[in-house]
Design goal:
Elements lengths: L8 H4 L5 H14 L6 H9 L5 E5 L5 H8 L3 E6 L2 H10 L4 E4 L16 E6 L3 H4 L5 H9 L2 E12 L5 H10 L3 E6 L13 E7 L1
Amino acid sequence: MATTAPAPRWFTETEADHSHLYVERIREMAADGDDLGGEARLIDAMVPRGSRILDAGCGPGRVGAVLHACGHQVVGVDVDPELVAAAKADHVGPTWLVADLSELKLSAQGQGEPFDAAVMAGNVMAFVAPGTEQLVLTRVAQHLKPDGFLVVGFHADRYEMGEFDKHLTGAGFTLEHRFATWDLRPWRLDADFAVSVLRL
């Protein structure tokens, strides 16, 4: 008997109109001139120009759009069709796809070439389905080149760091660096945010 995969927390633990409100908030921030590219600047500094980058859990595309503007080949993936539609409407250039990260197989969507790097910003790991965290990391790892890397950021109170470290190891990654912010402030145990660089 076939089993149904658990639903991501993005759908089960948020308000019904959360996606629409999130898109509008990002658009308002962009219109106000807020800095929405901090995560992308870090990734850009870590890769050669023209790299192939996976924006895993891309939302409405703010990170992937900046990376594309820097000259990279970007594929953004999100489980929420409304967010992907907003990315397509607001940011022409990258490839935006609907897919569940726990079932990620981009070759089935015409994206079989492996990636140099991947990024998961915006608490993506805190919004995946309960119990699929290691599977999500494994699926992303399977899309990276040998020696490829993934940078993951999330609030530390939303995903226990010890669990995350077990999951990243189980997915085949090594923790290369950890910071308390996307602008690389030093990690400390009482930090409320974690940015981790994972290497295959």
